[in-house]
Amino acid sequence: MNETAPDSRYAWLRLVITLLIAVVGNVGMWVVTVVMPEVQAEFGSSRAVASLPYVTTMVGFALGNFAIGRVVDRFGITLALTGAGLLIAVGYGLAALSPSIWSLSLVQFLIGFGTASCFGPLIADISQWFQKRRGIAVAITASGNYISGAVWPGLLTWMAADAGWRWMYLALGVITLAVLLPLAQLLRRRIPVDTLLQAEALTQQRAANTGFTPRQLQWLLGLAGIGCCVAMSMPQVHIVALCVDMGFGAAVGAEMLSLMLLGGVVSRLISGALADRLGGVRTLLIGSTLQAVALFLYLPAGGLVSLYSISLIFGLSQGGIVPSYAVIVREYLPAKEAGARVGFVMMMTILGMALGGWLSGAIYDWTGSYQWAFVNGIVWNGLNIAIMVMIVTRGNRARGATAPA
Asked: Are 164 and 38 a contacting pair, CB within 8 Å?
């Protein structure tokens, strides 16, 4: 068997290594949500200001997806992961020494930038190694982000005990150096150029059916990504703070976040399998519609049981949305530019998370509750649905026009 062929045994082994890297590397995105209440109390800030380290993390994460994606296209994933891993470890050390919430926000930008190497660039890399099972491969890789969010918050809380949030950052710096850097060296092999060229004809035909140029389609996907992720950020970023406000405590909120993200893992795997059968656009449309329903359910929720239940429903609804964007990019846009193209769309989804994370905190400060923040998410989610419907409709119309009479 050709070990460099798509869907080969080596491709599946590479997928396992990629997943391990994603689980370890993506903790930089989630640790800031766990420490938010403690940071707010230590520095005496408002909820919106306490959300700023998350916002800067996501801005760095967004820019890193695009910038590091371009590095992967030129130099391969190993070099990108090695440099990013060193940046992440240094960032954790500086975060532990932060004298103010503003300096922590700046350092979190660096952490977010490096952490991005373990999301979009990894997804773009593994997508090159699969054709028939690309959807499930992308979904498994993207699940590393949610597995990280499901496992690490509770684990860090248990490990830190009464040591505090600064200790968490120091521990993560050591873990990054000990695990992430060695695993990155196992991904040195690169996909042959002729394999990439074989994928071009099919992607060009799909793009032509939509009536959009590759650039137009890329920007449409980016706009849709902002819409869905402003909606997605409300529960993911503020569920711990919401539980503290309601008197349930930060530990309960961390459990709900873990439950939400575990549901997201299941959703991503199911969506990956669906994408291999239905395509990325239809799979994304299904997930986005279900996410809107789940957000509506949060509005009347007020009890502990209902919040646990809806958090699980939300995770099961929205987990497959972001990976579907990567599948769409690989279906419609040039394969040789996968790192930059996937990175751009991932950047836009993450900017949506950053905007939504801050906006939800600001709406809370303005209104004194999260009710209108959920409504805000529902409205933004409608933008994503509208764009996906337009792409599906135009594609169907083009196929109907070219079908034999």
From this structure: yes
DSSP secondary structure string for all residues of 228-254:
HHHHHHHHHHHHHHHHHHTTS-HHHHH
* CB burial string 29-43: b at 16+ within 10 A, e below: bbbbbbbbbbbbeee
DSSP 3-state percent helix, strand, coil across the chain (nearest 5): 85, 0, 15
Strand intervals (E) in 281-375 = none
| Secondary structure of residue 279 in the 3-state scheme | coil
Q: How far apart are the first and last CA of the chain?
A: 43
Round to whole Å and give the CA distance between 241 and 239: 6
Residue 75 contacts by C-beta under 8 Å, 6 or more apart in sequence? Answer: none
pLDDT in tens, 42-71: 777 776 777 788 888 888 988 999 899 889
Check: CB of residue 185 under 8 Å from CB of residue 78. yes
Q: Return phi, psi of residue 369, to 5°.
A: -155, 175
* CA trace torsion 99, 102, 107, 108 (10° rounding): 120
Mean residue pLDDT across the chain: 83
Select from 88, 100, 96 the least CA-distant residue to 49.
100
Q: Distance between CA atoms of 135 and 275, rounded to whole angstroms? A: 5
Between CA 373 and CA 327 the distance in angstroms is 30
Residue 18 near residue 187, CB atoms below 8 Å = yes
**Hey, CA dihedral for 374, 375, 378, 379, is it positive or negative?**
negative
The candidate with the shortest Cα–Cα distance to 92, out of 2, 15, 16, 167, is 167
Name residues whose C-beta falls within 8 Å of residue 119's C-beta, 6 or more positions apart in sequence. 22, 26, 29, 61, 65, 142, 145, 346
**What value, to the nearest 5°, has the Cα angle with vertex 47 and ends 41 and 52?**
100
Per residue in 107-146, pLDDT (tens digit) is: 999 999 999 999 989 998 998 888 888 889 998 998 888 7
Question: 356: Cβ–Cβ under 8 A, 6 or more apart, which residues?
Answer: 229, 230, 231, 232, 233, 234, 237, 377, 380
CA dist list (Å): 366 to 43, 204, 373, 374: 21, 48, 10, 14
